[in-house]
Predict the structure.
Amino acid sequence: MKSALLTLSRPGLSSHLPRLSLLALLAGAALLVGTAQAGVQWKWKDANGAIQYSDRPPPAGTPDSNILSRPAGARAPVNRSPDPASGASAAAPSASSATDPELEARRKKTEEDKRGQKKAEEDKQAAQRADNCQRARGYQRSLEDGLRITRTSPSGEREVLDDRGRAEEMQRTQEVIANNCK
């Protein structure tokens, strides 16, 4: 510690001290300005109405009214012809990486609602299949037990199932069981 104090008290070194502190201050300011410039971005609405963020100006042909923010001291973008190869690939990543959080939340909620509706519909169909299965098995037992079964004909008359009609009903019931009892 004494050596540091002694070197500062030397007559030739004290004249360099203000310059060194000024250089250190300028270097720190340059670092701050460099990092501040790195965060500066352009913000504009594209042709689809989506908000885009970039460190580069919007493509040529973007109206000034669609440019929402510019870096400090930046002028309107220079009309230059966009490179088709880089323009298409550059637009896609910026659109996906700079989505609006509100829009993303609404999209997720919509997807969850759709999944919920689909699940409810599947549950409803499963309950209907289970009910159909139970009824078909009960009807199959009635057919197998040999009970007298009547049905109403298209003309409105009652008719008793004979052996052929019972076999047809048994086949139809087995198809219903195969489709609903899984």
User: Anything to note?
Assistant: Residues 102 and 170 are 58 Å apart (CA to CA).
